[in-house]
Design brief:
Chain lengths: 670, 251
C-alpha cells in the first residue's frame, strides 16, 4: 500500500467514515480524561508511543503511560499514543488508504519523529509490522530514509531485540524514563544542525547514547553448526555491550501523575501506583525479576500521594498497588493500614495484584478489603511439588501453602486462585500431578476450618517458556505435545476426584502458543524472516487464541528458516551448553553470565537461593556492574493525612451550614 | 462479596434529573461507556451519592432511553439520588468541568414530579445524509408518508424482528437549507416511543424499502429532544416542565 508522502494533517474525517462499520469504535477516537493534547507546531521532537495490542489491553499499560507523561512535560516535545487496530478496521483502512493514526490528534504515525513500541510480550511483534505497514513505513529498517520515524523498541521483550532487529532502528533496555529524554535530545540536536549525515547520521548519534542499541551497527557471525560465533560492532561508536538503564529514586519520578481514564472498557478498570520496582526473590523462571534488579522502593509518603492524586484525578473506584511482589515492600503494612484508614468510609477499594504465598498476605488483603469486596485471592506457588519448587527457587513449603490458603478461607474469602506452570526444567508427570493433591488438601483443610463446603479453589496453569537473562535461558523448553499430555493427566486427576473435584476448577492453555513465544523469546536475527512470513500469511494479535494459528507459524518457520540448518526445535526444545554465545549476550542486564550459569546448576541440584534484601549479596553482578544499589526502607515516616476538600459550592444556598463533609474523597455524607 | 458490617443504607434526600448531550467523537461511545464516565465524574467532583442496598452497592443512578452507539444526542436523560440538598446549577458546572469532551450536562432540575420516563413520549431527531441530493430525499420522504404501514426488519437480542416503521412517525420532512457543492440531505423526524421503539435506522431502512434511498456514506444521526408529545403542533416538549412547576400540553 502506498500512502502519499508523510502529511501531518489529521485523518480523523477519513477515519470517522469507517467507524460505523467496526466493532467498538470508541477505542479509536481518543478523548480520554487526562489525555494530553500538546500543540503540534510548538514541538520539534514528536513521539508516537505504541502498545502493540488492542486498545483495551494497551491503554492501562503503566510503562506507556509513564513515558507519555514524561515526554509531554518536556518543552518542545510531544507524545501521542497509537494502538493495534483490529482486523475489521485494518481492512477498511487499507481499502480507503487511511494510515495508522494516533488517538490524540489523529495524525498519521509516519509524520512523527519517533515510533516507540513497548513490548511486554513477544506476541506483539506481528502487530508492530501491521502498524508499520499501515503507516507507510518500510518494514525493514534498512529501507527507511530521513522522512520515516525512528522505530524504537522497549519493554521487557527488548532485552532480546535480535528477532526484530530487521524491523527496528533502536532498542532500549531497562527503565525508559531517562533514556527517552536522551533520545529526544539527540534528535533535537541533529535536527537543529540540519540533519547532518541523514538517517545514518542520526542512528550513529543514537548508538552513542547510553542504554541505546542500534542493531544496524552490529554483525552476527555463525558457526557451521548454526550457533552464533560472535556479535561484533561494525562501527567504532557502537559499544560491544549495551547496558540496561536503571532508574533510581522512584519518589523523584511519580508517574503517571494523572492516569488516563478511557471511555472504552479496558482489561484493568483501575488506577495503578507502582510501589517498587525490581525483585530479588530470585525465582529462576522469572525474567521480570531478573532484569529489573535491584529493588527500588517508593516511599510510604510517595505512595500515599500518588494514590490520592490518582483517585482525585481519575474517579476510578479501585487503586492497584503494583510491583512484582507487592507484599515485599518494607513498609507494606503501614501502607495498607494508612490507605485503609484513609478510604475507610469511601467506595474506593485497594488491591495488591501480585502477592506471594504467605499468611502475612491474608492480613494485608483483609486490611485492604475492609470496605470492599472479599471475593477472591490469588497465589502463585508455580510448582506442584516441593522438589520442583526448589528447582525454580520458589521457596514455599506445602505446609505454608495449605496454612495460607486455609487462613484465607477462615477470614471469609471463598475463592482462592492458584497459579502454576507446566514444563519447568526437570519436571516429571508426578510434579504436575502433585498440583491436584495440593488442591485437594487445600479444600479438605479449608472445609474443616470453615465448617462449610462453600469454598472453591481454581488451579490456573500455563506452559513455561524459558526467557533470556534468566538461569533457565539454557534450558530445553517442553514440547507442546508433552505439555498437553501432562495437562491432560492433571485434568483427569482433578475431574476424577469425587470428594473434592467439584470444588476445584482448572484453567489451562494448550502448549502450542508457548512454542511460538519460545522461538520469539530466545531466537536470533534469523527468526526475523519467520516473523515476517507469518505476518504476510496473516498473523495478527498472536496473544489472542481466536487469532492465533500454530500451523501458520510453523509453516512460516519452515520457509523462513530454510537454508539456515536450524529449525523451531533447535530454538525451543534444545538445551544450550555453557560455552554457547546466546543471541542476547551483548545486551547487558547487569547479571553476570557466570552467576546465571551457577544458578542454573543450583537449580538442577535443587539448591535454593535466598533473597539478597535480607541476606548477604550473592554477587549476581547487577549492583557492581551498573553502579546501583538496593533502595528500601523502612523510612519511619507516616502517611500524610488528606487535606480537606471544600465542596460547599455544591450546596443549595438556602441551606446554610450544610453538613456535607469535606474531608472525604468520596463525599459520602455521614 | 460482602461489604464491611456497619455500612448503613441511607435513603437519598434529593433526586436530581439531568439532560445531557453526547456530541462529536463521543457518539461512538456506548451507553455503558458513558455511564462509566459519568460515574467517575461524580466521584471526582465528590457528589454525595446515595447507594443501593445489597452485596455490591451501586450509586443510585437511572438512565432513560439511551441512544445507540454511533448516534449523537442533545437530549439524554438520567436521574441521581443524593444525600444532601445540592444546588442544581453548581452540580452542572462542577460535572461539566470534569466530564470528557463531548459529554455535557445541559440542564439539572430537582425532581418534583413523578415518573420522568413516562413523560418521554416521543423523540425528535435530525438525520444528515452526506452525498444524498435533498430533492432525492424529499421524494423518498413523500413516498414514505404516503404509506400507511412499512414493514422493516431489525436484529434484536431475540433474533430478527419484523415491525411497522410508519405508524410511530409523527412527522418526517426534508429540511436542508442552502444548496452546497457537497450534497447533503437533512431529515427532521418526530417519532412516538413504543415497543419496539422505532429508531432513525428503521426509518432509513423504510426509505430504502419504499424509495430505494441508499446513502453512499454513513448517516449522521442526532437526537434533538425527548419529552411529552404535543399532537397538534407535532413537537416534543421539555419533560422537566412539571419539575419546574409548569404544566405540559397534551400529556
Amino acid at each position: 500500500m502506498t500512502i502519499t508522502e508523510f502529511s501531518d494533517a489529521p485523518v480523523f474525517d477519513q477515519l470517522e467514515r469507517l467507524l460505523p462499520f467496526v466493532q467498538k469504535p470508541v477505542q479509536y477516537v481518543g478523548g480520554e480524561v487526562n489525555a494530553r493534547m500538546t500543540d503540534w507546531t510548538s514541538c520539534d521532537v514528536r513521539w508516537a508511543l505504541m502498545y502493540p495490542d488492542a486498545y483495551e489491553v494497551g491503554l492501562p499499560n503503566q510503562g506507556l503511560q509513564i513515558l507519555y507523561e514524561v515526554l509531554n512535560e518536556q518543552e518542545g516535545t510531544l507524545a501521542e499514543r497509537t494502538y493495534a487496530v483490529w482486523p475489521d478496521l485494518e481492512a477498511l483502512m487499507r481499502a480507503n488508504s487511511v494510515p495508522q493514526f494516533t488517538v490524540e490528534s489523529h495524525r498519521p504515525v509516519g509524520a512523527f519523529d519517533v515510533l516507540g513500541v513497548s513490548f511486554a510480550t513477544e506476541l506483539g511483534y506481528t502487530n508492530m509490522l501491521t502498524a508499520l505497514d499501515l503507516a507507510g513505513i518500510p518494514l525493514h529498517a534498512v529501507d527507511r530514509n530521513e522522512s520515516h520515524p525512528i522505530v524504537v523498541a522497549g519493554g521487557h521483550a527488548a532485552f532480546n531485540p535480535e528477532t526484530i532487529a530487521d524491523f527496528i532502528d533502536v532498542a532500549v533496555a531497562g527503565d525508559g524514563e531517562t533514556v527517552v529524554l536522551a533520545i529526544s535530545d539527540a534528535i533535537r540536536e541533529w535536527k537543529g544542525q540540519g540533519s547532518p549525515g541523514g538517517r545514518e547520521g542520526l542512528l550513529l548519534r543514537l548508538a552513542a547514547v547510553e542504554h541505546v542499541y542500534v542493531p544496524a551497527f552490529y554483525s552476527v557471525e555463525y558457526l557451521p553448526d548454526g550457533r552464533i560465533r560472535r556479535v561484533v560492532p561494525t562501527n567504532p561508536d557502537a559499544p560491544w555491550r549495551v547496558t540496561k538503564a536503571t532508574l533510581t529514586d522512584l519518589d523523584a519520578w511519580p508517574y503517571p501523575k494523572t492516569p488516563l481514564v478511557p471511555l472504552a472498557e479496558t482489561v484493568h478498570e483501575r488506577a495503578s501506583v507502582e510501589i517498587f520496582r525490581g525483585c530479588t526473590r530470585g525465582c529462576r523462571f522469572c525474567q521480570a525479576g531478573m532484569i529489573t534488579r535491584p529493588v527500588r522502593e517508593r516511599s510510604l509518603t510517595g505512595v500515599g500521594e500518588m494514590v490520592m492524586q490518582s483517585v482525585a484525578s481519575t474517579g476510578f473506584e479501585e487503586v492497584g498497588l503494583l510491583s512484582l511482589s507487592s507484599a515485599d515492600h518494607s513498609e507494606i503494612k503501614e501502607i495498607a493500614k494508612g490507605l485503609a484508614d484513609r478510604y475507610e468510609e469511601s467506595n474506593t477499594s485497594l488491591s495488591l495484584p501480585s502477592t506471594r504465598v504467605d499468611a502475612f498476605n491474608i492480613d494485608l488483603a483483609n486490611e485492604l478489603s475492609r470496605n470492599g469486596r472479599r471475593s477472591g485471592l490469588t497465589f502463585a506457588p508455580e510448582g506442584g511439588s516441593e522438589r520442583i519448587r526448589a528447582v525454580i527457587n520458589k521457596m514455599v513449603t506445602e505446609e505454608d501453602l495449605v496454612r495460607t490458603v486455609t487462613t484465607a478461607y477462615a477470614a471469609g474469602w471463598r475463592q482462592v486462585k492458584l497459579y502454576f506452570m507446566c514444563g519447568l526444567p526437570t519436571e516429571t508427570d508426578d510434579d504436575v500431578l502433585q498440583i491436584a493433591r495440593l488442591a485437594r488438601e487445600v479444600i479438605r483443610v479449608g472445609r474443616e476450618v470453615t465448617g462449610t463446603r462453600d469454598i472453591r479453589c481454581t488451579v490456573s496453569i500455563g506452559g513455561f517458556v524459558p526467557k533470556p537473562h534468566t538461569p533457565f535461558q539454557w534450558a530445553a523448553q517442553l514440547g507442546h505435545e508433552e505439555t498437553d499430555a501432562r495437562l491432560a493427566l492433571l485434568r483427569d486427576e482433578i475431574r476424577g476426584d469425587r470428594q473434592f473435584g467439584k470444588a476445584i476448577g482448572l484453567r489451562y492453555h494448550d502448549g502450542k502458543p508457548g512454542i511460538v513465544e519460545g522461538i520469539l523469546s530466545r531466537g536470533d536475527r534469523r527468526v526475523g524472516r519467520v516473523i515476517e512470513e507469518a505476518w504476510r500469511d496473516g498473523a495478527r494479535f498472536d496473544g489472542w487464541s481466536e487469532h492465533f494459528s500454530f500451523d501458520r507459524w510453523m509453516s512460516a518457520a519452515e520457509r523462513g528458516l530454510a537454508g539456515t540448518g536450524v529449525d523451531v526445535a533447535w530454538y525451543t526444545t534444545r538445551e544450550r551448553q555453557h560455552d554457547e554465545v546466546l543471541p542476547w549476550d551483548h545486551i547487558d542486564s547487569g547479571l553476570d553470565k557466570e552467576w546465571l550459569w551457577a544458578d542454573w546448576q543450583d537449580a538442577l541440584a535443587e539448591v535454593e537461593v535466598e533473597d539478597c534484601r535480607w541476606t548477604p549479596c550473592f554477587d549476581c553482578g547487577v549492583c557492581d556492574q551498573l553502579d546501583t544499589s538496593i533502595d528500601i526502607g523502612p523510612t519511619g515516616v507516616t502517611m500524610l493525612p488528606l487535606t480537606p476538600v471544600d465542596r460547599s459550592h455544591l450546596h443549595s444556598s438556602d441551606l446554610p451550614g450544610s453538613d456535607l463533609p469535606g474531608s472525604d474523597l468520596q463525599g459520602q455524607a455521614q | 462479596m460482602a461489604r464491611s458490617p456497619g455500612r448503613e443504607i441511607v435513603p437519598p434526600v434529593q433526586k436530581l434529573r439531568m439532560r445531557y448531550a453526547k456530541r462529536g467523537r463521543l457518539r461512538f461511545a456506548s451507553h455503558r461507556d458513558l455511564a462509566r464516565s459519568f460515574e467517575r465524574a461524580l466521584r471526582r467532583v465528590g457528589i454525595p451519592m446515595a447507594f443501593s442496598a445489597g452485596f455490591n452497592p451501586h450509586p443510585k443512578i437511572s438512565y432513560a432511553n439511551a441512544v445507540p452507539t454511533g448516534t449523537a444526542s442533545e437530549a439524554e436523560y438520567l436521574e441521581i439520588g443524593v444525600l444532601a440538598e445540592l444546588d442544581p446549577d453548581a452540580v452542572r458546572h462542577a460535572l461539566n468541568a470534569v466530564l470528557p469532551d463531548g459529554m455535557t450536562i445541559e440542564d439539572v432540575v430537582v425532581a418534583r414530579s413523578n415518573d420522568l420516563i413516562a413523560r418521554l413520549e416521543a423523540g425528535e431527531w435530525v438525520i444528515e445524509l452526506p452525498g444524498v441530493e435533498p430533492q432525492v430525499a424529499a421524494e423518498a420522504v413523500e413516498q414514505f408518508l404516503a404509506q400507511a404501514e412499512i414493514e422493516v426488519e431489525r436484529k434484536t437480542k431475540g433474533g430478527l424482528r419484523r415491525f411497522d416503521a410508519r405508524g410511530a412517525v409523527v412527522s418526517l420532512t426534508e429540511c436542508s437549507q442552502a444548496a452546497s457543492d457537497q450534497p447533503c440531505a437533512i431529515l427532521s423526524l418526530v417519532v412516538r416511543h413504543g415497543t419496539p421503539s422505532v429508531r432513525p435506522d428503521d426509518i432509513l431502512a423504510a426509505l430504502k424499502a419504499v424509495a430505494d434511498l441508499a446513502p453512499p456514506f454513513p448517516p449522521r444521526i442526532t437526537r434533538l429532544a425527548q419529552g411529552p408529545l404535543d399532537e397538534d403542533a407535532r413537537t416534543v416538549q421539555d419533560p422537566f416542565l412539571p419539575d419546574r412547576g409548569e404544566s405540559t400540553v397534551g400529556s
